[in-house]
Amino acid sequence: MVRSFVLISGIVNGAFHKIKKKKKPRNASLSIQSLPNEVLVQVLARVASRSFDDLYSAKLSCKNFNESAQDDHIFEHVDISKFPLVSWRASEKRTRFLMRCRDLGNAEALYRQGMCDLFTSKRIEPAGIESLKRAASKGHVEATYVYGAILVCCGGDLRQKGLELLYSLNCHKSRGLSVTECRERIKELIWNTMWVNREVTCRIVEAHDDNAAMKACNDCGDPQDGIKK
């Protein structure tokens, strides 16, 4: 709880410093709790995007934080990566929480939903692809990789778009996550935590063996180079 309060104080004080070159408030608690609700929601959203545990601690620290943490914006940005994809003992409360995250466009929740729809069905579900597309549009690294690989498999104009998405992972270095690490995390999710349809899975995962896709994913320059050969 202390850690989360210090983190929130740091974010708020940093914002004050950028807006006006003033000394840090003597009473950090008073400064935070006196913020307009919309500003407090933004601050809590930043905390939530870094750690669900810190958000939970912040909610316990005071009534204002707990009320503001119920805002839809928080659910859209909260980090849910520590929640297992499959849990045999999932409580109703946690299930509702994760469903709300998904319904409000949380990138990780969309990615998980897309992967389940895509890899556990007997065929490639359009809804799963759409969820991955939405997650990729929000900057989700693994979703970008899988969605890009799917487009490469589709061929035609979509293949070029897929190559560009795969290449973009190297351009932005994906929050310190290399393409190889990204691929391994996806494979681990598929093989270790999901009851998958092997036929559908292999058709998509093997997309990274495509020479052009590999060329676009290994710091080899313009993705167009892979198509020209």
UniProtKB/TrEMBL annotation:
Pfam families: F-box-like, TPR_27. Gene3D superfamilies: 1.20.1280.50. It comes from the Eukaryota. InterPro entries: At1g67623-like (IPR040338), At2g35280_TPR_dom (IPR057136), F-box-like_dom_sf (IPR036047), F-box_dom (IPR001810). Residues 29-78 form the F-box domain. This is F-box domain-containing protein. The lineage of its organism: Eukaryota, Viridiplantae, Streptophyta, Embryophyta, Tracheophyta.
